[in-house]
Automatic annotation (TrEMBL):
One matching Pfam family: Fer2_4
Record-linked InterPro entries: 2Fe-2S-bd_N (IPR042204), 2Fe-2S_ferredoxin-like_sf (IPR036010), FAD/NAD-bd_sf (IPR036188), Metab_Enz_Cyan_OpOx_G3PDH (IPR051691)
Keywords: Oxidoreductase
Domain of life: Bacteria
Residues in coiled coil: none
Protein name: 2Fe-2S iron-sulfur cluster-binding protein
Length: 412
């Protein structure tokens, strides 16, 4: 399914279900596994269908695994360091042959375990307990984690998201003397720009540093006007009168049979994988258009088959994608043998945190809800939004200009 495009620079060894796997230090753990054709990483909680990495931004559950005894680790956001013990969770048997997959045969249209046997004396509670146990998500960490401290941090501005939009705003405000806190959950600052090496040079002049930058941290929510951050050091409550949301967009998905099979990726995720030196080793079907479709096609060349998203009829396969089905005309259907389908669809703005802070939303029929803001990014009292979370396309020049306007308005 995948291969490495370059020799190891800093090789390490990890262990998957007890077996050694070669890896590159610092790359996403999910990339390490895919590069060695370990493509089934997890199982869905109820029907135990095979799952794999798909978005490489922590937006799906396909790469959840148990790492060094800690359950539910997003392996796409875990930097490989070497010697990790990685285990499939939520399986009875193995990743490739989960005995509980028979659940899918008995309930091919799904199962609502919340109402299954509901109202039947004793059986309802037994069914609930059984459903939780076979899901595997309740298994506790192997070791008790030591308590970590919490602290309050006051600043002038907090920027959530350190992609291009967030970094430009933080850089401009910091240069003007503001005390700026930056929060980002990625392995490295830069967001989607990291998937475009030719554009990544922009980061050199705007990359922040210091103790006010929280990378690999989660902005957990807004409470009483303060931002709660789950950082590696512990909980940090950030109190700032101005909040800037540069949270980007979730990769677009499409409704078609088999859209959850291992082998269905976003085109952006495959571009990011390519920058880590990991690429598909066979033909790839790209459905959709835009910057990520064009970039992926440029890198993979004649191994690509392109089609409109509306032409997708489904994919075939059991444990992974084997064929992509396309509509060609009113009745004709074309089957393409491939293990990789790349979706290049309009992103769904990541509006959730801004909305919790009090920002207004607007509905875009092509993308869903987005943060409503004026030309300068103002989205409410002390609330600002910039970039893809406002419904913009990913265009580095356009996003940079919007971020500069936003910073200027905050400074005014």
């Amino acid at each position: 399914m995948f291969r490495r495009t370059r020799a190891f620079r800093d090789p390490v060894t990890i262990h998957l279900d007890g077996s050694p796997v070669r890896a590159e230090r610092g790359e996403p753990l999910a990339a390490s596994l895919l590069a060695e054709d370990k493509f089934i990483l997890a199982r869905s909680p109820k029907l135990h269908r095979p799952r794999s990495a798909s978005c490489f931004r922590g937006g799906c559950d396909g790469c959840l695994m148990r790492v060094d005894g800690t359950p539910n680790v997003m392996t796409c956001l875990h930097a490989t360091r070497g010697d990790e013990e990685v285990e499939a969770q939520n399986v009875v048997g193995s990743r490739q042959a989960d005995l509980l997959r028979v659940t899918d045969w008995f309930f091919p249209k799904g199962i609502d375990h919340h109402h299954f046997m509901a109202g039947v004396p004793a059986l309802g509670s037994i069914m609930q307990s059984f459903a939780r146990k076979i899901a595997g998500l309740g298994r506790m960490p192997s070791e008790i984690e030591a308590p970590r401290p919490a602290r309050l941090l006051e600043a002038d501005v907090v920027v959530v998201g350190a992609g291009l939009a967030g970094l430009v705003v933080a850089h401009k405000l910091g240069a003007a003397g503001a005390r700026v806190v930056v929060v980002d959950d990625g392995l490295s600052l830069g967001g989607s720009l990291l998937a475009l090496p030719d554009q990544a040079r922009r980061l050199a002049s705007i990359r922040p540093s210091g103790d006010l930058v929280f990378s690999r941290a989660t902005a957990a929510g807004i409470y009483l006007g303060d931002l709660l951050v789950a950082a590696e050091e512990g909980a940090v409550v950030v109190r700032a009168p101005a909040k800037v949301f540069a949270t980007g967009a979730h990769d677009g998905i499409a409704a078609f049979p088999g859209n959850d099979l291992p082998g269905v990726f976003s085109a952006r995720a495959l571009c990011l994988l390519h920058t880590y030196g990991v690429e598909p080793d066979g033909p790839v079907v790209i459905a959709g258009e835009g910057v990520w479709a064009d970039e992926l096609a440029r890198r993979l060349g004649d191994r690509v088959v392109r089609c409109k998203a509306s032409a997708l009829a489904g994919v075939e396969g059991t444990g992974q994608v084997k064929r992509v089905l396309l509509h060609e005309g009113a009745k004709d259907e074309r089957r393409i043998d491939t293990e990789i389908l790349a979706l290049a669809l309009p992103g769904a703005p990541a509006f959730e945190l801004a909305a919790q802070a009090g920002a207004e939303l607007r509905f875009d029929p092509a993308r869903g809800y987005a943060v409503a803001c004026d030309a300068d990014g103002a989205a409410g009292e002390g609330i600002w939004a910039v970039g893809e979370c406002t419904g913009m396309d990913f265009d580095p020049d356009v996003i940079t200009a919007a971020a500069e306007r936003c910073a200027a308005a905050i400074n005014a």
